[in-house]
Amino acid sequence: QVQLVESGGGLVQPGGSLRLSCAASGSISRLYIMGWYRQAPGKQREWVAGINNSGGTNYVDSVKGRFLVGRDNAKNTVYLQMNSLKPEDTALYYCNSVPPVNSWGQGTQVTVSS
Question: At a CB cut-off of 8 Å and minimum separation 6, what does 90 contact?
């Protein structure tokens, strides 16, 4: 497994944008699908976005049209562009393979509030 470090979270108003990054300690090219998960207070962790090695993507219905996931295998990095943020997007965001085979990182907090 590789170690994963998420960054880029913060406090943003509804309708705002954030770009999250996930740095892996080793190659992610062998991880066919990489993606993002989130966990809101009092709720279970849920999958939100994934991207395969061919650039194909998929998203949970609640973020379709607002979030974009990308990966750069040469940099061992995964990204999540988050647009039109809503209060219900508030959560601790994690990256991992899909399905998750690596240890979870510390996550990065996204808070959407006015």
Answer: 40, 110, 111, 112, 113
Dihedral sign of CA atoms 17, 81, 106, 75 in order: negative
* Tokens 């990054």, located at residue: 21
The DSSP-derived string for 85-108 is: --GGG-EEEEEEESS--SPP---E
Distance CA 29, CA 52 (A): 9
**Cα-to-chain-centroid distance, residue 20:** 7
Query: Tens digits of per-residue pLDDT, 54-96?
Result: 999 999 999 999 999 999 999 999 999 999 999 999 999 999 9
Distance (Å, whole) CA 62 – CA 56: 18
